[in-house]
Amino acid sequence: MKPVEDAAYAMAALSATLVLLRALVKKGLLTRDEAVRLILDEAVSQAIQAEAHQQPGSDASRQCAEMLKLIAGRL
Question: CA-CA-CA-CA torsion for 48, 50, 53, 57, nearest 10 degrees?
Fold first, then answer.
C-alpha cells in the first residue's frame, strides 16, 4: 500500500474513533477525562510507532499524533 493510502486509512480510523468517543461521552457512558486519556494514549502510541519505523509514511503518523493531542486538549 502507498504511504498516501496508509495515511488515508489512519485518518478514517481516527475520525471514526472520535465520533464514537464523542457519542459515548454525550450518552454518559464515558467521562470526558476518560475520553481525553484514551486519545492522549493513542497519540503517544502513534508517536512512538512513527519514531520506531522512521519510514516516509511515518510523517503522517506524527501528524496524526499531533492532531490527537490537539483534539484531546479541546474536548
Answer: 170
